Amino acid sequence: MRAAIFAALLFGASAPAISAQTPETTPPGSGAPAPAVERPDPARIAAAGRLIDLMMPPGSMRELMGDLMPTMDTILAMTAERLGIDTQGMSSEQRARAVERLGAQSDRHFRERLQITLDVSVRVTSEILAELEPDMRRVLVTLMARQFDQAELGEMIAFFDTPTGRKYARMAFTMGRDPAWQEVLTLMVPRMTEADTRIQAAVRDATAHLDPLPQI
Question: What is the reported pTM?
Fold first, then answer.
């Protein structure tokens, strides 16, 4: 959740004043004009750009991507769940051995293939996000200028321009690598699978009075 919050707040640019001048458009096919949206003045855009530059220096998308992507331990936990391996009470090393033992029965390159898949996924996703960064920064600077007035932006700039503020901004993109956070991600995998099963059962019960879905 921390990473998602930062993704919404942290991408900025130093001089995106064009954002405030871009006309609002009507969504294609909507048949109705888009609602009026506040257009931040150039001073707020400039202040928001300064804030975002402090919170997230250009090029931070790759660092953020590394923070968000799952580790091999998380991937192995997900794979164990998919393969139906009971990992309760296992350490991460024991879980890895159990998954690799079962996976190797059908693929002798199981672990190597898994590592390559993870590495390629991280690399390609990082490249795509880096390409998107300029547009994301421009849009999110406008967002910050819209949500905070000049005084509020000034207060945040003052904080992030301090050693503590700069440290927090840097840590915001690496805290997800802490073992404690990785443990949370590992614990979430079986719970999310359980949630999916419970949702399907609840939907099935709640729609039991409806006609069956047509067979296509």
Answer: 0.51
